[in-house]
Design a protein that fits this description.
The protein has nine helices and no strands. It is mostly helical. It folds into two domains: 72 residues, lambda repressor-like DNA-binding domains (434 Repressor (Amino-terminal Domain), Orthogonal Bundle), CATH 1.10.260.40; 56 residues, no CATH class. The longest helix is centred in the last third of the chain and has 26 residues.
Length: 135
């Protein structure tokens, strides 16, 4: 596993020790499995942006700081939603996006598929409208 993953796990261990928290405490606050936090602390897994969003709220650490420490680029939202332009990303903050992504992730697969289809339609209609306005 790469150094940034191991370094993030070590850094997170120090934070938990300073706050007298265990991995299980953090998992409970984040509403994730103990094994998820254990793998992160052990440097065996890179936390996803959604996991980091929950961690940010659980530990009251800025999301951007966690993203940087975990080795993500400065605008990870573009990786989460392929096909979304930077103009579109500028309309919503990372925190809002993470909240929306978490809700989408928790939908049953059939509803998630429907939502993704609707969003694709919406984005293509919006792009067509912008093209017409420029003409």
């Amino acid at each position: 596993m790469e150094n940034s993953v191991r370094d993030f796990g070590l850094w997170l261990r120090r934070i938990l020790e300073e706050r007298e928290l265990t991995g299980a405490d953090l998992a409970r606050r984040m509403e994730v499995r103990d094994s998820t936090v254990s793998r992160i602390l052990g440097g065996k897994a890179k936390p996803s942006p959604l996991t980091l969003d929950a961690m940010s709220k659980a530990l009251n650490i800025p999301f951007d700081e966690l993203m940087g420490r975990a080795g993500y680029p400065s605008n990870p939202s573009l990786k989460i939603l392929p096909g979304v332009t930077q103009e579109q990303m500028a309309l919503i903050s990372d925190t809002e996006l993470m909240g929306l992504a978490r809700k989408l992730k928790n939908l049953p697969p059939t509803k998630r598929g429907l939502f993704e289809t609707l969003m694709t339609e919406f984005c293509s209609e919006e792009a067509n409208d912008k093209t017409k306005q420029r003409s």
